[in-house]
Amino acid sequence: MKEWVQHPASKGDNAVNATFKLDRTSREVSGVLRAGVERTVFITPYSGPNADKTREEVEGRAFKVFYNPDTNCITRVRSLDTEWKQIP
Asked: What is the DSSP letter of 42?
């Protein structure tokens, strides 16, 4: 899960915050949803010419969510996209 959430800029000299929003869902079969997630990332460099200037990136990624229909509990999540994609 951490690799899905972590933004590459967090490995550098930056403050990185993100919000996540469930963008869309569709039911494939009982117990399986296809979910689109939108991630908005706020990146603020600690140093350099752009220090303290926050930039925003909006990205999307698709997931397949498996759940128990009786309890409505998520049992597994699988990423369908290999990476987050920029949303214009």
From this structure: E
Closest CA relative to residue 67, chosen from 22, 27, 36: 27
Q: Are 62 and 85 in contact (CB under 8 A)?
A: no
Q: Pick the residue with more confidence: 2 or 68?
A: 68
Identify the DSSP state of 54: -
pTM (global) more than 0.90: no
Long-range CB contacts (< 8 A, 24+ apart) of 83-86? 84/7, 84/39, 84/59, 84/60, 85/59, 85/60, 85/61, 86/57, 86/58, 86/59
> Can you give the pLDDT at residue 1?
65
